[in-house]
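step=encode ok
step=design start
structure_in=
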């Protein structure tokens, strides 16, 4: 009986720790580029090829797509992107469009300006990793609770780190990189 009580207390302490801290979730996919200047993006804005913007895979954007895609809660969120083989080379982009040609759930179609910061456009397709720059307030789907590597803890606990368990393949915590 004592050992069962100790186990329950240990599990309660572990649960308390995971509630009071935060870590980044890193998403992995492929990066390509497109020309956002050809028209309005699904978020309702027209961007230029020199803007640091991206289109997220349609399969994932649809998870959060209200009846009016201009009101998608992912619109405008900034993400930090890096080529998986070159993690020190990053670019921060705003999610402003949907990528219907992206096959992986976490693929990004980058503006030419953003892609050029990661690699030569002649490469065409690169393996990328990315994370949200600001904590995400979404409560459902693959981005629920996602946030940056060094964000404020949910209860004000500074310096705390938590591993947000990846629900689907293609995600890991920043601490695992």
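sequence_out=
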């Amino acid at each position: 009986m004592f050992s069962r009580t100790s186990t329950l207390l240990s599990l309660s302490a572990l649960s308390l720790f995971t509630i009071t801290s935060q870590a980044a979730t890193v998403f992995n996919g492929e990066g390509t580029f497109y020309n956002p200047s050809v028209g309005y993006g699904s978020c309702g804005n027209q961007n230029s090829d020199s803007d640091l913007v991206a289109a997220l895979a349609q399969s994932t954007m649809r998870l959060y797509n209200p009846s009016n895609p201009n009101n998608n809660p992912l619109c405008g969120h900034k993400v930090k992107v890096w080529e998986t083989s070159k993690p020190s080379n990053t670019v921060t982009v705003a999610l402003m469009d949907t990528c219907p040609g992206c096959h992986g759930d976490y693929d990004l179609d980058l503006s030419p300006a953003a892609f050029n910061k990661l690699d030569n456009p002649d490469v065409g397709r690169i393996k990328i990793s990315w994370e949200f720059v600001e904590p995400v307030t979404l409560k459902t789907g693959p981005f629920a609770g996602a946030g940056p590597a060094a964000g404020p803890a949910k209860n004000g606990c500074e310096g705390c780190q938590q591993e947000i368990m990846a629900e689907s393949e293609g995600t890991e915590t920043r601490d695992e990189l």
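step=design ok
step=annotate ok -> The beta strands are 25-33, 53-57, 78-83, 86-99, 108-110, 126-132, 171-173.
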